[in-house]
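pasting for the record
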Amino acid sequence: MQHQAKKRFGQNFLRDKNLLKKIVNESKIKDKDVIEVGPGQGALTSFLAEQAKSVTCFEIDKSLKTILNPIENTYENLHIIYEDFMEQDLSTYGDDLHVVANVPYYITTPIIFKLLETKQIKTASLMIQKEVCDRLVSKPGSKTYNNLSVILQYHTVIYKMLDVKRHMFHPKPNVDSAVVRIEKREQPFLDETKEKIFVNIVKTAFKQKRKTLTNNWFEAYRIPKEEMHSFLISLGLDPNIRAEKISLETFIEIAKVWPYDL
C-alpha cells in the first residue's frame, strides 16, 4: 500500500530494519508500557510490540489506517489512536510510561516539554534533528549550549544514542537526524520554590547570549550591576562571565542562594 508522505505532518519514514531493531533494543522497553508518537507506516511499531508489555500509538494522519490496521490486528498488546498526541492526557495510560518516537522536526520542542510535564513518563527515546540533539546534550563552553540544554539536563539524564543519516529516510529530509535518550531524574535537585528561581534565572541568563550574566540579569530584574558583580564574586565567579560558561551545577548553586525578587 503506497502512502504519500505529507509535509504538513513532517513525515519522513525510516525503513532500515537493523537500525529500527537497534533503536528498540537501546530504548530498554522490554515488558514496559510504551507510547509511540507518530507510528507512520508502522516500521518501528512492530518491533516495539514484540518487546513491550503494551504499545499505545498516536497518529494524526488518518489516511495511514489502511497500512496500520493490519499491524494492529497482528499484536494483541498494540492499540493505535488516530488523534493528536499533543492534545492527549497521558495520565490514563499508566504510571510508568516510556516514549519512543520519530519526532516531526517542527514540533520537537513542544513534544519534549510535554514529556517533561507528564510525570507518568519516565524515559523517552526520540529521533530528532541532529542539530537539536547536539544542542540538548551540549556542555558549557560549546556554541550550542543554551537555556534548553540546562533546563533539560536539570530534569533528566540525557545522551545521544546514535546518529542517523538523511539518506536512510523516505522521503529524504534536508538534514541528518539523531536518536536522543532522555531519562527523568527520580529526585529534583531543588525544592519547588528554588526550582522556579532556577528556571527563571536560566532563561534570562541566556536571553542575549553575547551579553554577560550581569547585563542579562540587570535587564530582567533591574538588579544594580555593582551588586550583581559582588554576588557573583561571592560565589567564586568572574563578574563578567557569560551564561554559556556556567555549568548546570553552578546554576543550581546560584538558585539556592539567590537573594533577589523575580
